[in-house]
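Let's sit down with a protein and look at its sequence and fold side by side. Please make up or recall a protein chain and show it to me in full. Label the sequence line and the structure token line clearly, so we can match residues to local backbone shapes. Go ahead whenever you are ready, and we will take it from there.
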Amino acid sequence: MIDAMEPLIKHATGSPVAPVPTVLPDIPSYQKAGDVGQRTLWVVFVLMVISSIAFYALAFRQPVQKRLFHVLTAFITTFAAISYFAMAVNDGVYLNKIVIKEAQKHVPDTEHIIFREVYWARYVDWSVTTPLLLLDLALLAGLSGANILVAVVADLIMILTGLFAALTSEPSSKWGYYAIAVIAYLIVIYQLAINGRNVVQSKDSKTATFFAVIGGFTLILWTVYPIIWGVADGSRRVNVDAEIIAYAVLDVLAKPVFGFWLLITHDSFSSATSLEGFWAHGLGKEGAIRVGDDDEGA
């Protein structure tokens, strides 16, 4: 019918009938881990388990007074192993929906929907393991309790805002959370690189040099994490497999490699940290809690 009337309309108006614009529905795209990513998760899980066993074995070779660093380091790889197991069996992952809107001139605005895997178990891991890692470095340097508290709280803010940024679909919110995380990370750097370096100078030269080297190694690795986040969860410029591999390399360097380096080197020092009191002996008579006894002279 329209085709039959087109010559009449063209004769009356002097122009052909413009076709009615149509918008085809968009097909969502899925960005998920492939075989390479899944195998990587299992490999790192095994490495974390083996490292944990080794760290616990090293701990039992030391008297309880000198096990603090061993216990903290073993906990780091233990929690990391649990996290990687959860990711490998697809329990620690969330399919995040991202809607990309494109403005059009002659047709309605279009939307492209992306579903990308976000491994929230990774952020749970980091929220536990990075404070423990900070404790390793802070105790090695001899930071005060106040400085340790500031560093740990800033670290938790960094991890949590990174998780919020990964889960949100709004670009403004995403990069707002990212900015907060970067600011929190700068506070962590200040506590370790400035306060830590100043405090460790009062210790022997071997400890001071070792803290500078292993602390610098850690901060370099930690600086790469937000870069990976920016090109992966942030801008989605790399696929999920590449994201998994990049984080896996960083996690292995920042946890098992860091742990073996720390424990083997620290154990070789004659001034290795030794803790007595509650850590080694529990609550003594002076620190015991008395229940049901009246105070003398009451």
